[in-house]
Every structure is written in structure tokens, then in C-alpha cells.
Amino acid sequence: MNSLIRQPGIGITGSDFVLRQKHATPFQPRSFLPSLSKEKKPKTCSLVSVQKSLHLASLCVGNSRRVDLVKCEAYDADKSEVENGGGGGTPSEAAKKAKIGLYFATWWALNVVFNIYNKKVLNAYPYPWITSTLSLACGSLMMLISWATRIAEAPKTDIEFWKSLFPVAVAHTIGHVAATVSMSKVAVSFTHIIKSSEPAFSVLVSRFLLGETFPSSVYLSIIPIIGGCALTAVTELNFNMIGFMGAMISNVAFVLRNIFSKRGMKGKSVSGMNYYACLSILSLAILTPFAIAVEGPQLWAAGWQTALSQVGPQFIWWVAAQSVFYHLYNQVSYMSLDEISPLTFSIGNTMKRISVIVSSIIIFHTPIQPINALGAGIAILGTFLYSQF
Ligand code: 3PG
């Protein structure tokens, strides 16, 4: 589940890359690296977009889900001008709708391309730890270059920012590597069907770890999500326990990442694009030693030679494509988040998974039985139902 949070003092958007003039300050730092400042930034009212934060929005407000949803819906109301035309249906509203449509199409397309190249790489080079590391390294490098060339303004951070980012980065790292391990073991479609159950994990983590309560309609909506995923899992022709568990761990990790994000970003003024960039850099630092320990340069080098000899030079382009598209789809998803309501975003994310599932089944000729497809359909329908509550 994804959502946005409007909250004072936090600026998380994905659009400042494009609209950097909006955020530009007269002072240009000498270093392109994120500057460390001990100054406390004054709180300003700004937009926060946090991936998978429809549920998270609830965390900031209180213990009652219903009360929280009022907050969420208040934000929805703000954005309804964008989404519903504010009752006007003016040409500018039509242009906004067209822009959102373009964001969604771009986000899904980039994600589909990422998933295809990621799977092609993993088929030829079954080392998910280095593959995950390369994705983060590529995104980090792209952002460092953007800061160095002033395409994007480097964020001004303090030690508290990095401290609060740490648990987010740990969860992001686990979620990312677990999803990649999953996709190295099972079909892309299977991983994404299991990942479509993330809203159910959001509810369960909130209920059992945070003690939040939800209306019964919410609990009822997770029955088809879990039931559909279970049906898909038991009827999956190429079921693999590591692949299944990787997707499940990714679900839990991304839910926790969002909880930590919500808490960690409170009161900070780093924009969404730069927040995501810092997250990539810190995740890269966390993941690299584990990747070396789990797989290591010897396996990587031998596997690289094997992949090159089997696939040819285009293997290098596959690796580059999966790395670049990983960063780009995350970037555009944040740009979408900046423009739409949590509800619309969550539905968009589910639609994204449908795009990935269908395209990967077609491209990789994934064998699928009717009962297996039925399970996927039930799970995705459950996610839509969850979005309605
Ligand atoms: C990853 O590698 O981080 C996952 O593929 C992310 O998947 P998602 O953005 O669709 O949740």
C-alpha cells in the first residue's frame, strides 16, 4: 500500500529534480556532497510523499485508524482538485490529469523494464546480492553526479538526519535484497503476486507490533489478499521456498521501512528526491559488506565470465539497464506521489504489479495454470478492496 502524508516540516517529493528551481536557494554549497549541518531547520509546511504510506499516514496521527484516515482523506480532499478536477474540469485540470497519466505510464513502464532486465540478469548471473548492490550503486552515482553538476541541488543534512535514516536504510536494504533474491529463485510474476499482499502485512504489523486497531472491513479485505496469495503459492508450478520467503520478507521490510520513514523524516526538510538519494547511498554502505560476505568477488568474477560467454557483450547492457531503471522507476514513483492522493497511488501501485505480472508472463513464457491465475486475481482484487477502506 502506498500513500502520501501531508505534514509540517517534511518535504519528500520526487519532482524537485525537474523543478529544482522551485527549491533552489541563493547560496550554492561548495561541495556537491550532502552537507552536514548542526543547525536545526525551521519547520515549514511542505508535502511529504512516502512510498507505501497510506497506512503510514495513520501512524503519525494517533492510535485510531479511523481518525488517521480522516487525515489521509483531508489530504485526498486537497488533491481532489487534481484528481477530480475540483468540480471545474478546466483545461488546466485536464493538463494535470494528463501529467499524472503520463507519470503513471512512465512509472509502470520503467518498472516493467526494470523487472525484465533484472530477471534477465539474474537468469544469466544468479547473484542477487551483487545485483542489488549494483542497483543502489548506480542510483547513488547518478545522484552524486547530479549534485556535482548542479542538475539537482545537494541536500543540507545533519547528523540527526543520518541517524534517523539508518533504520529506514536497513529496512530498505533488506526489502530490496530479499525481493531480488526472490526473483532469482522464482518467476517475476510469482514474486509480484506475493508482493501484492503488502497491504495485509501493513495491517498485521500495525496490529501486532504497534497495537493499532482497524475496522472489521479492513480485516475482512485482507482475507482475499492472503487467501489469493496462498492459492497462488500452492498452485505455483515452480514454487521455491527461498523465492516465496524472499517476497514475504520484502513485504515485512517495506512495511517497516515506511514506519521508520515516517518517524525518521519528521521535522526534516530534505526533499523526496534527495531523501531517496541519501537512502540509496546509506543502503549501499550497509549492503556492500554483506554482499561481499554472502557471495564475494570470487563468485562474482567467475559468474561474470560465465554470463558473458553465454549471453555475449549485451549482458553488460542488461546489468546497466536493470541498475539505471531501478533508480528511474523509484524516482518517477516519487514524482507521482507528489501529485496524487494516497488512495490513487495505492491503486496505481497495484496496477503496476498487474502490468509487471502480465508482461513478465508474456516475455518469459511463464507457465501458469488457471487456478494459479485465479489466486493472483483474488489477491489483487483483495488489494483493491483494501484500498476502498
Ligand atoms: C526491489 O528490488 O526493491 C523490489 O523489486 C521493489 O519492488 P516494488 O518497488 O515493486 O515494491
From TrEMBL:
InterPro entries: EmrE-like, Sugar_P_trans_dom, Tpt_PEP_transl, TPT_transporter. It is found in: Plastid, Chloroplast membrane. It is a multi-pass membrane protein. The chain crosses the membrane at residues 100-117, 129-148, 217-235, 241-260, 272-294, 314-332, 353-386. SUPFAM superfamilies: Multidrug resistance efflux transporter EmrE. It holds the Pfam family TPT. It comes from the Eukaryota. One of its GO terms (molecular function) is organophosphate ester transmembrane transporter activity. Keywords: Chloroplast, Membrane, Plastid, Transit peptide, Transmembrane, Transmembrane helix, Transport. This is Sugar phosphate transporter domain-containing protein.
